[in-house]
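== Protein entry: sequence and backbone fold ==
=== Local backbone shapes as whole numbers ===
==== Amino acids and backbone structure tokens ====
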Amino acid sequence: MFKTMIIILSALTVMGVVALILVLNFKGSDEASTERSIDDIVEASYETEEITTDLKSGDYVRIKFRIVTDEKKAVEELQKRDFQVKNILIKEMAKMETQTFQTGLSTLEETLKLKLNEFMTEGKVTDVYTIDKVLQ
């Protein structure tokens, strides 16, 4: 009885070690394959129209973004949600002073990303890039 229990425990330990090695190896290869090519990024991204709005300080801004998603279906959904993108931008920039806008563009991009992901049902926004900006 004791020998049988030792054999079973040894077999389970060996199987556990083999499973752990396999999981770690497959996880590493998945991380390497998840890096996207520039063609995939461009294909799964959406470029907003140029938006002109005012800041809290009274200055005007013309700005344009490229919004990168994780899949093509998310791009199609973003095109339909264009009015929500504009709404978020207008509301966020209306709160900003000129100095805050000039130094906090990354914060605006992150806010846009987070708020859009709250609306998205098909995929998600992974990055937001400012591609054109004029402050008057």
Q: What stands out?
A: The longest strand covers residues 125-135. Residues 36 and 121 are 22 Å apart (CA to CA).
